[in-house]
């Protein structure tokens, strides 16, 4: 447990609406976040990310399950670890007419952090040069980085950011991404929730994908994308029927889409051409299909009936079963409880 910054087992939360309806926000979540690096906590809107984070921070009470932060059970021992955790769950309030630096100095005084820390956190969030300017002149991205700077004042080991790039333009998103990456590289643990996969894929070392309050897949980005090391290839061939028969007989999964066959499960793309050539079937075109996190995410969440995205790439990928298998989530999906 000592090497996990966050761990949850069987975490559950059901909300009751004013009309007495029950909303199951989190249903048996098992989450492990290793110490050090950036962990993407991914799921479509409404999948239970914010509720899970709020339970970890002691802001919402769990109905069932256990949680630890740095090996300490929470909320029971939250006071012992809370100083190691910095979180942005809602936009903090800053004084618009004061500079970013002044705002941070006031905060540092309030929480007992040394003022020398202010210059350091401004630099860490690349705000050093603009620190003297008034808060109200900042772009949204700079405001968000000042919020991150504020959480860094007390040198937390774990930073929790809930959808930190919401509402930011591409430049702002890039700045936040770079800030998160450098925090992870310093050995801090960053948990960042998002429903925007492309963003997280570029910065996360490890990810957890959730849907309807349950873990669907987790591991390093490479593992989740296709940890089996098996290839998916797209190929064009004259005799599709004969090629399908040969490849299926070799235990590969073949799917026809228009003029192309998509073949999953080969150890290497060359295996596909060799098997076909052995039977005097020659490919006209062969392209290895690179899976990305977005595709995995769309397929996983589509299985949950969540409709995480538009048409996307999901239709051309067949790697999901492997990703799902890693968490054993197939047995529990689709219950709609
Ligand atoms: N206070 C509440 N009362 C009733 N239902 C709630 C409450 N908070 C959240 N929910 C519901 O619980 C489910 C999970 O919501 P949650 O905000 O945790 O998901 P999320 O993954 O963070 O989504 P988003 O990205 O939209 O914030 C949703 O169906 C949501 O409507």
From TrEMBL:
Residues in ABC transporter domain copies: 6-237
InterPro entries (alphabetical): AAA+_ATPase (IPR003593), ABC_transporter-like_ATP-bd (IPR003439), ABC_transporter-like_CS (IPR017871), P-loop_NTPase (IPR027417)
Record keywords: ATP-binding, Nucleotide-binding, Transport
Biological classification of the source: Bacteria, Bacillati, Actinomycetota, Actinomycetes, Propionibacteriales
Compositionally biased spans, kind Low complexity: 327-337
PROSITE patterns: ABC_TRANSPORTER_1, ABC_TRANSPORTER_2
Chain positions covered by the region annotation Disordered: 311-337
Originating organism: Kribbella flavida (strain DSM 17836 / JCM 10339 / NBRC 14399)
Matching Pfam families: ABC_tran
UniProt cross-references to SMART domains, sorted A to Z: AAA (SM00382)
Protein's name in the database: ABC transporter related protein
One function term, GO molecular function aspect: ATP hydrolysis activity
Family: Belongs to the ABC transporter superfamily.
């Amino acid at each position: 447990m000592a090497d996990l910054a966050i761990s949850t087992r069987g975490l559950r939360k059901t909300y009751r609406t004013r009309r007495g309806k029950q909303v199951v926000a989190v249903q048996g979540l098992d989450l492990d976040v290793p110490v050090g690096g950036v962990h993407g906590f991914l799921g479509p809107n409404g999948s239970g990310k914010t509720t899970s984070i709020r339970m970890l921070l002691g802001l919402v009470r769990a109905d069932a399950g256990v949680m630890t932060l740095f090996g300490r059970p929470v909320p029971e021992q939250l006071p012992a670890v809370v100083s190691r955790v910095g979180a942005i769950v809602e936009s903090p309030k800053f004084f618009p007419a004061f500079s970013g630096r002044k705002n941070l100095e006031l905060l540092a005084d309030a929480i007992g952090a040394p003022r020398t820390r202010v210059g350091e956190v401004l630099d860490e969030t690349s705000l050093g040069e603009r620190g003297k300017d008034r808060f109200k002149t900042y772009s949204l991205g700079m405001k968000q980085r000042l919020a991150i700077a504020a959480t860094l004042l007390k040198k937390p080991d774990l930073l929790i950011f809930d959808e930190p790039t919401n509402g930011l333009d591409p430049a702002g998103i890039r700045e936040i991404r770079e800030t998160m990456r450098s925090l992870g590289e310093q050995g801090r643990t960053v948990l960042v929730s998002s429903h925007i996969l492309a963003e997280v894929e570029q910065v996360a070392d490890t990810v957890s994908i959730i849907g309807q309050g349950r873990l669907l897949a987790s591991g390093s980005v490479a593992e989740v994308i296709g940890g089996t090391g098996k290839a998916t290839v797209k190929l064009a061939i004259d005799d599709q029927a004969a090629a399908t028969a040969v490849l299926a007989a070799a235990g590969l999964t073949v799917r026809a889409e228009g003029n192309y066959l998509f073949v999953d499960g080969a150890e290497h793309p060359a295996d596909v051409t060799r098997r076909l050539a052995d039977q005097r079937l020659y490919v006209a075109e062969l392209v290895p299909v690179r899976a990305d996190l977005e595709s995995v995410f769309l397929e996983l969440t589509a299985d949950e009936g969540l409709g995480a995205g538009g048409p996307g790439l999901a239709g051309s990928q067949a790697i999901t079963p492997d990703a799902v298998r890693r968490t054993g989530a197939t047995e529990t999906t689709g219950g709609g409880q």
